[in-house]
Amino acid sequence: MYNILADFINEQKIWDILESNKLADFGKIKEVLAKASEMKGLNLDEVATLTNISDPEMLSELFNTANKVKETIYGKRLVIFAPLYISNLCANECLYCAFRATNKDIVRSSLSQNQIAKEVKALISQGQKRVLLVAGESYPKRGFQYVLDSIKTIYDVKTEHGEVRRVNVNVAPLKTEEFKLLKGSGIGTYQIFQETYHRETYNKVHVGGKKRDYNWRAWSLHRAMEAGIDDVGIGVLFGLFDYRFEILAMMQHILELEDKFNVGPHTISVPRLEPATNSNIASHPPFPVSDIDFRKIVAILRLAVPYTGIIMSTRETAKMRRETFALGVSQISAGSRTNPGGYEEESEDDPSGQFSLGDHRSLDEVIRDVASMGYIPSFCTACYRLGRTGMDFMDLAKPGDIKLHCGPNALSSFKEYLMNYASPETSEIGNKLIYETIAEMKGIAKQRAEKLVKRVAAGKDDVYC
Ligand code: SAM
Ligand code: SF4
To answer: How much is the pLDDT for 404?
Structure first.
């Protein structure tokens, strides 16, 4: 099923829309930005108009509008997570990735359940609560069951102050039956990146293995949602093709999911190509995305789908990550390793990693930095554990009601981090921020925040509303 043409990605239509909005004047751009301020999202023509902005004055208006929307919907919260690479075995040939089958210059390994438990303990001891399980497309012995076993192992690890409370998953597209099993394992979000929506480029960079099938991948989130997974994540690997095309194609994908399932993706990831062992294309992207264009991409996505989370990984430098918080990023990874076993080994930039990291700081350093900028790092996992997912989440999010939960929960989970894991320096900055933030809150949100933070301060873990 679904091995047919993914016709919701209509390339000719994308080119036509880009062409017809190419010459948008300041008046038109301002009109689109005014509509974007209403936080109801944008259509394809409007998104195309924004992708064509190059004038510095218009660009700064775009950034200011994205900042306002981000602050109104998400406030100062930033959700924190860490990737957990369980295996770098892979049967595919993605020319940009160090894990591709024919790359002989990395050490291959897939972690045993015991090793995974050790990695999880290492992550918990840093203070992590949300993990993104990542694997190449080839599983040892038990096949896909290996992924299910690994999820169970992650959830089963309990330590004095912590456990992983949400496992998100980034593994190759599955069959509907397998997605049902994945759903049954208690995952949060299933994410998969199309890498490039441009078919010709897709065929050029995926030269072996199952991943060559564009359509199988493009329909995978349909299968996931049919199987009952209602939080799904999408993404593009920026640098492979023209980012303007990719943004519009991603919008077509989003509109298709909204049309068929009444809810779009929960998150969008914006990886940019990073150097990877033995990959020419990764070091020399065919369509390099400049830093300014990268910021533009984040800002446009923030306005186009205001209620969809935007994820920024440690592929990017600390500086770029800081800049994009203001433009729309709502989730960041921190203290990441991309080689299986990397947390326990405490290795940095291991040659068996998937790509080079731009941000090598520890979780504590990232938290301190983020808090110094006035952002509240959130380890909250309440929505998914209380069943506020998919459409239910969007129903709450759209009228702004979610803030009555997210604000207080972010503060209580941050307080829990500070009490159990932070360095004295981070603790001082963080506690000050928590009390300043509560002082500025009003009404129900303030009452909830005060109550939850007080309970954590009294030694109670895992409190949320
Ligand atoms: N193997 C699965 C797949 O390809 O869908 C899932 C895991 S794969 C390790 C996760 C993502 O890493 C890919 O979807 C791709 O976007 C990203 N990636 C691969 N090589 C990269 C590189 N050189 N720079 C940045 N991101 C890269
Ligand atoms: Fe394998 Fe995924 Fe890397 Fe492609 S991107 S080589 S499928 S791990």
So the answer is: 78
77 CB near ligand 2 (under 6 Å): no
- 258-270 confidence digits (pLDDT tens): 999 999 999 999 9
Domain 72-378 is of which CATH architecture?
Answer: Alpha-Beta Barrel (3.20)
Hey, CA dihedral for 106, 109, 110, 116, is it positive or negative?
Answer: negative
Q: Is 458 helix (H, G, I), strand (E, B) or coil?
A: coil
Question: Beta strand pairing status for 331-333 and 190-191?
Answer: unpaired
Domain extent listing, the chain:
72-378, 392-457
Nearest atom within ligand 1 for CA of residue 90: 1
CB–CB of 169/132 below 8 Å?
A: yes
Residue 347, judged by CB atoms within 10 A of its CB (0-12, 13-18, 19+), counts as middle
- Site residues for ligand 1, CB cut-off 6 Å: 96-97, 134, 136-137, 170-172, 192-193, 195, 237, 271, 273-274, 276, 282, 315, 354-355
What's the CA angle centered on 285, arms 248 and 305, to 5 degrees? 25
356: confidence class by pLDDT, cuts 50, 70, 90: confident
- pTM for the model stands at 0.95
Angle among Cα 303, 305, 310 to the nearest 5 degrees reads 90
Atom of ligand 2 nearest to the CA of 101: 6
Q: Are 341 and 111 in contact (CB under 8 A)?
A: yes
- In this predicted model, what pLDDT tens digit does every residue of 26-40 receive, in sequence order? 999 999 999 999 999
For atom 21 of ligand 1, which residue has the closest CA?
Answer: 97
Confidence of residue 397 (pLDDT cuts 50, 70, 90): low
d(CA 44, CA 65): 18
Query: Using CA atoms, how far apart are residues 338 and 306, in angstroms rounded to an integer?
Result: 29
